[in-house]
Task: structure prediction
Amino acid sequence: MTDFDPPLRLHLDGNALVSNWRFLQGQGGAACGAAVKANGYGLGAREVVARLRDAGCRDFFVAHWSEAAAIADLVPPEWISVLNGIQPFDISSIQQLGAVPVLNTPNQIAMWKASGGGACHVMIDTGINRLGIGPEQIANDLFDGLDIDILLSHLASADADSEQNGRQLAMFSQFAKEIPAKRRSFANSAGIMLGPDYHFDLTRPGIGLYGGVERAEMATGISPVAHIAARVLQVRHLNAGDAVGYGATYICEEPTIIATASMGYADGYLRSFAGRGVVYADDVALPVIGRVSMDLITINASAGSSLSEGDWVSLPFDLPELSAQSGLSQYELLTTLGQRSDRIWS
Ligand SMILES: *Cc1c(COP(=O)(O)O)cnc(C)c1O
Result:
């Protein structure tokens, strides 16, 4: 294989990741797990799992079985929980792998019992009405013969001061008394910040680990983990009246220096940034102008006139800020990151 130097780098700060996990862990006495689904929210599940394992994390949550298999050599399989549950055709591979399913429906529970069972987790729906056993589905004998490790439920509105949070907490507390399980887990990142009543035995943050700030209380303890550097491929001097990019959506009002950099929507820099995004040359903010292309953005570099071909522009992943610029959620900003950049961990 020939080595190339990709013109797009995703810099990842391992110390920030670990310090974010410690901040969330330190909010109460419960154990703190980590949601590493969708390839560690786009940053690289293997790198994330190895670092958090070394910091003391013992519970990792993925959505798919393939995601469990991808990290199964890094931690004991029983530390991995698979949120999306089981399907009949997967059962034998699941038992071989040894990661633990989160059973979400009466049908999944019946399948697990019929297959011989073993330790499992159970998701109860307390109001998100998305995935999990609904209160109306709980029959007297539903859980008989199950070896339940974690009883889970998931908050719908933890990022807001919604009355729904208290209602879900009351319902989960009741189920936690009635359903026999070794451990109970309720709070995601924002849920942790609602206070220790919400923590039970184990919390399972995702977005906060990766620098997301979903409640104001998180701002003091959470730092950005990612930052992108894109290489400038060309610098041009355009005249007033010249148009830039697909659809000629930007017309220069005056003589303008344009820099074209190697980052586009295929890298997760979606078209919703057009006209609102900003990248930095050293500390100078430069507006992204015209449409975002698949592989390229165009930048008004008039304010950074020393910028030249081969230089790097940077995009710090201040997630609340980028979310405001693009209208994308902090979750979407991370999980749509492309695969062709170098991921460089420090
Ligand atoms: C994704 C997910 C989490 C983590 O949520 P964040 O908001 O990213 O902290 C926790 N629990 C479940 C069931 C999830 O699907």
Observations:
- DSSP finds ten helices and 19 strands in the chain.
